[in-house]
Design a protein that fits this description.
The complex is a heterodimer of chains A (175) and B (106). By secondary structure, chain A is an all-alpha fold. Chain A contains seven helices and no strands. Chain A is extended and about 50 Å long. Chain B has 106 residues and is mostly helical. The chains are: A mainly alpha (175), B mainly alpha (106).
Chain lengths: 175, 106
């Protein structure tokens, strides 16, 4: 079972990586990269690294790729091609998926469900590795962890200073 | 078709990691758009992360996963700075194609 999951995720990751490199449009590349990161998170799950899988989705597929897309759109490199067929097809797919989601929600709401147990019970009493990672991170790796926060602060200040550019100096001196 | 193994062997994970890393290298080499080059660098970082997690799993340790956590944080910092630089280069040169940015003086 795990082997099949691995093969599926691996094919997805390899295919998405190839599409990132081969695609002409940077926005499309970024979206393929998001899908690749999500499949990598799946592989992390297979390797019993649940915490990292969640961090991968939240930090990489969430934060970093949003930053990428923001910059791509800010630079306005390529205008979306809005020719007839592609546009109509996209609209059709959008409405179709929306209708599917609505049907799913309606069927779920009509069914009625029994309230489950209020406290979450992990299967087999296994809590995953998040607690273990936290314990190691805040004992053995405490100093590198704190240094990391300094690195993020420096990166933040540096990014703001660099991105403000030569034209933005005036606003800073007034404050 | 030969029978699949019961558990995924370590070589498969490492082969996948190597494959993704090579794709990232090829992306850096063949693309001229600085943003896509950046994404390829992210691919390489993730390939290294996969190798870290693989060894952490097969050695029954957690240190590899901690390292991946650190790598992700450094990658986030690197992306913030790198994208700021790209934005600045675009303001100066009106391009993000790396072979059109061929002098240090703006």
């Amino acid at each position: 079972m795990i082997v099949f999951f691995f093969i599926a995720f691996a094919l997805m990751l390899a295919g998405c990586s190839l599409m990132v490199v081969l695609n002409r449009n940077p926005i499309t590349s970024a979206l393929w990269l998001v899908l690749g990161f999500v499949s990598l998170a799946g592989i992390y799950l297979l390797l019993q690294a649940e915490f990292l899988a969640m961090v991968q989705v939240i930090v990489y597929a969430g934060a970093i790729m949003v930053l990428f897309l923001f910059v791509i759109m800010y630079l306005n490199l390529k205008h979306d091609i809005d020719d007839g067929l592609q546009h109509r097809m996209r609209r059709l797919v959008g409405w179709g998926l929306g209708a599917l989601l609505l049907a799913e929600a309606v069927s779920l709401l009509r069914r009625g469900w029994a309230p489950g147990p209020t406290a979450f019970e992990p299967p087999n009493g296994v809590w995953g590795n998040t607690a273990a990672i936290g314990r190691v991170l805040f004992t053995r790796y405490l100093f590198p962890f704190e240094v990391l926060s300094l690195l993020l602060l420096v990166a933040m200040v540096g990014a703001i200073l660099i991105a403000r550019g030569p034209g933005g100096r005036k606003g800073g001196s007034e404050a | 078709m030969n029978a699949l193994p019961a558990a995924v062997p370590i070589t498969w994970y490492l082969a996948l990691s190597a494959l993704v890393f090579v794709i990232g290298v090829v992306g850096v080499l063949i693309r001229r758009n600085a943003l896509v080059i950046f994404m390829s660098i992210e691919l390489m970082l993730n390939a290294a992360n996969l190798a870290f997690v693989t060894f952490a799993h097969f050695l029954n340790g957690l240190d590899g996963q901690i390292f991946v956590f650190f790598v992700m944080t450094v990658a986030a910092a690197e992306v913030a700075i790198g994208l700021a630089i790209i934005v600045n280069v675009f303001r100066l040169k009106e391009t993000v194609y790396v072979d059109e940015v061929n002098q240090l003086k703006g």
